[in-house]
Specification:
The protein is mainly α and 199 residues long. Helices cover 77% and strands 0% of the residues. The model has no long low-confidence stretch (mean pLDDT 89).
């Protein structure tokens, strides 16, 4: 009975979270003050280190085939850039890199930039599909691709300042792969033992 209620709420909640994500992105586009405020808080490195970890619940909800969980995780991932207060002091690499990101996002958008930016939703869709289909190694490969693509993009557009992303990206990748691997294998063992098993 409880499972049926969750299934009935899945699509409506997914639409709510999807709408909230689209609203947030829209507000960031049309409201320069909000955009600048969010990036000022994003200078806090805690947001850099926490963001990759959202891929763990993203994989979990994909495994569970919960659209509400998937879209909810994306919404919280988007908002996490301004969860923490703006730091009193900001390193030169971090400041320069975020200035580049802001200029990149607010600059002209041609076909090349659109194509590169589409890698984000496409890679997230591939990651979700991997765990929806219960393919651990495909999922890990996509996780690695996301991290490497982020590092390469940062180096290509940020130059020397792109090195600021290396530690958060690599630490996040290692933690994500470890947590996803452990979680996946436990879920698979539990599934093989049957629905009434515990532990």
């Amino acid at each position: 009975m409880e499972n049926e209620r969750h299934k009935r709420l899945d699509w409506p909640l997914a639409i709510v979270f999807g709408g909230l994500s689209a609203l947030l992105i829209g507000l960031m586009i049309v409201n320069p003050a909000l955009f600048s405020w969010a990036f000022a808080r994003h200078q806090n490195l805690l947001s850099w280190y926490i963001r990759p970890l959202f891929l763990v619940p993203f994989c979990f909800f994909s495994y569970k085939r919960s659209l509400a969980g998937i879209f909810g995780t994306v919404f919280f991932l988007l908002t996490s850039m301004f969860w923490f207060p703006a730091p009193d002091a900001v390193g030169e690499q971090v400041r320069t890199f975020l200035e580049m990101e802001q200029s990149y996002l607010t600059g002209d958008w041609g076909l090349a930039k659109i194509a590169v930016s589409l890698l984000v939703p496409v890679s997230l869709a591939a990651l979700s599909l991997a765990f929806w289909k219960r393919s651990l190694w495909f999922g890990i490969a996509v996780l690695a691709f996301i991290a490497v693509a982020k590092i390469l993009w940062s180096a290509a557009f940020g130059g020397a300042s792109g090195r600021a992303i290396l530690a958060p990206a690599l630490i996040g990748l290692v933690l994500c792969i470890a947590l996803v691997y452990v979680g996946f294998t436990r879920l698979e063992k539990r599934k093989r033992r049957g629905p009434n098993s515990s532990g």
